[in-house]
Amino acid sequence: MVKHEGYAKAYTFHKLVTAAGTPEKLVEHSEPCAQIKMKALRTNTGYIEYGFDGVETIIGRGEELIPKEFTVIPIDNVEKVWIDSTVNGDGVRVVVMV
Predict the structure, then answer these.
(1) Residues 66, 41: contact at Cβ < 8 Å?
(2) Model confidence pLDDT, tens digit, residues 45-74
(3) Of 5, 17, 28, 46, which is most buried with the most CB atoms under 10 A?
(4) How far from 86 is each of 29, 44, 49, 52, 60, CA to CA, in Å?
(5) pTM
(6) Could you read off the pLDDT of 12-45 as tens digits, one per residue?
(7) DSSP H stretches of helix in the chain
(8) According to the 3-state scheme, what is the secondary structure of 27-41?
């Protein structure tokens, strides 16, 4: 388990986008949290788009991450975050802080 000061626990996972241009939830079930840190994989050849529903995550509408770039999102549930990519198989590493 990863230690992050100020949080009871933290865990990590990777999420790869199966089909570029089709937004996907980070997880398919409820996972309460305090915040997440999401980093675009260094091996990505395109960019990641993220948002908080499937519509705003469509390429060109959400927030963008280039390879190795990260963001911290204060949010109460991981299930609320969606990602998409410009290239099949690109993805993110996610650290969830609870």
Answers:
(1) no
(2) 999 999 988 766 666 778 899 999 999 999
(3) 17
(4) 25, 10, 8, 18, 10
(5) 0.88
(6) 999 999 999 999 999 999 999 999 999 999 999 9
(7) none
(8) CCCCCECCEEEEEEC
Mode of pairing for the β-strands spanning 91-97 and 48-51: unpaired
Q: Per the structure block, which two tokens stand in for 80?
A: 């609320």
Q: Which residue has the tokens 């788009």?
A: 49
What are the CA-CA distances from residue 76 to residues 31, 41, 44 (Å)?
8, 24, 27
Map out the domains of the chain with their CATH numbers. Answer: 10-97 (2.60.120.770)
Cα–Cα distance for residue pair 33/96, rounded to 1 Å: 7
Token pair listed for 74: 């204060």
